[in-house]
């Protein structure tokens, strides 16, 4: 016994000398080194140097330098000791490749870097609702200046959702892989980077951004994250997402930006592939700039009351825009998935619960160089269900240089839209445009400028109703050249008090009065092949969906 105590004496002394190290094993990396000392084998210089050898590279400390203690329930305590040591000594914490760890909750803070390519961390079974695997909630950055970066890189974070109990009804809605939040007491933001991490099987969120945080999520992926792989619910905050993939699992979303606190949010997305839904809902005064977003088999939901949202160069699947006041889509494809069992609307732009707060014209959504297509256009399914490419409800909608592909029963359906501006748009669907005014919404004006129809368009314009009291609806058609077969419209009884201002040019093969050519008052019919000495141009004096009356204007 005396011999053993004497042999351990150098270790005890060294532990006292290096008291800043988190564990006596920091002196000697492995249990075998201790065993050698107990068995009277003198430590080599290299073994004594294990206090520094726990550095996997210069400035890095391996979590393996912090072995479990008998009182540790899992890997939580030793990882916490490793984190604390790295923060105190300005070191990066390394999770070795192939390492697998089980944790409950670990407190992290600004300035720390955790790297773990090839390592995985799994949430322990049966954790409480508000468990966060790595969190700043207990160590919030509080300063007038922005923090140094908190970086988590290369890890696979597994929420172990199948062993957490019920969660599909939000029972575990605050279980997060990474929770990043700064203090609101001072203006300085917590700055964070989550790089090349994978989030899987979370009862709630992969990475969650909360208040006063400036976070970049780069090169990450997610699957089976109930609320989303990337979630933000606090403000002020800046969220930047680059090269993110939200894989299709059995449940969950790729992203959910749904802010619950007052304050502005800046959201930037550059290159995201989502095989499930994404939501963008931000408080007033916020800005979202989205580029290269691809949504396959999911819905892109945007809530945009009094903020600015721009989505460009994207393929966003089906789209739902609610209360947008400055929402713009540039060079973006809306890909609609038809159904054999239910009616489908590809893009829905609506004002639902705030229409009394602003004038109608302020709810503004614009589509520039956008395409509306069926996802099954190369092999269309057979369905007798309704299929609308774009439906507007209240507000103001502008379409510039857009195309509506074939296979839609209706291209643009304006239901109570205050103002529709349709410029240089091509429709190849059965009914190009349908309009139904609503008394309380008051449709004021729809302008068709340079609109063209394809061979699959049977009804260029369908009137579904009209206003019976002022202000009456106005429909303006201009800068349009079309064949006589495309001059007709539907719902002549529904025109009612609607004011029509039309200056279309309609190509005819013969006298339009004889050939029964449809038209609006003000349309011009032009003979495609003029005959010397015969009339070759007429002006419509009545509006009729089948046979207007035409007066000779040139012969």
Structure description:
- With about 550 residues, the chain is mainly beta.
- It is built from 6 helices and 46 strands.
- It has a 22-stranded parallel beta sheet that branches. It has a 14-stranded parallel beta sheet with strand order 4-7-10-13-16-18-20-22-24-27-30-33-36-39. A 5-stranded parallel beta sheet has the order 26-29-32-35-38, with no helix packed on it.
- Strand 43, helix 6 and strand 44 form a beta-alpha-beta unit.
- The protein starts with a helix and ends with a strand.
- The N terminus is likely disordered.
What coarse outline follows from CA principal-axis ratios?
elongated
Q: What structural class do the secondary elements suggest? A: mainly beta
Helix content: under 10%
Distance between the termini: 125 Å
SS elements, strand count? 46
In a nutshell, what does this entry contain?
This protein has 555 residues and is mainly beta. It is built from six helices and 46 strands. 9% of the residues lie in helices and 39% in strands.
Structural features:
555 residues; mainly beta; 22-stranded parallel β-sheet; 14-stranded parallel β-sheet; 6 helices; 46 strands; 9% helix; 39% strand; elongated; disordered N terminus
Give a topology summary.
Blueprint: H1 2-17, H2 31-38, H3 45-48, H4 50-53, E1 60-62, H5 76-89, E2 92-94, E3 100-103, E4 106-107, E5 113-115, E6 120-123, E7 132-135, E8 149-153, E9 156-158, E10 176-180, E11 190-195, E12 198-202, E13 205-209, E14 213-218, E15 221-225, E16 228-232, E17 237-246, E18 255-258, E19 265-274, E20 278-281, E21 287-295, E22 299-303, E23 308-312, E24 318-322, E25 327-330, E26 333-336, E27 344-350, E28 364-368, E29 371-374, E30 387-393, E31 396-400, E32 403-404, E33 410-415, E34 419-423, E35 426-427, E36 431-436, E37 445-449, E38 452-453, E39 459-463, E40 474-478, E41 481-483, E42 499-502, E43 505-508, H6 512-515, E44 524-527, E45 537-540, E46 550-554
Parallel strand pairs: 1-2, 2-5, 3-6, 4-7, 5-8, 6-9, 7-10, 8-11, 9-12, 10-13, 11-14, 12-15, 13-16, 14-17, 15-17, 16-18, 17-19, 18-20, 19-21, 20-22, 21-23, 22-24, 23-25, 24-27, 25-28, 26-29, 27-30, 28-31, 29-32, 30-33, 31-34, 32-35, 33-36, 34-37, 35-38, 36-39, 37-40, 40-42, 41-43, 43-44
Antiparallel strand pairs: 44-45, 45-46
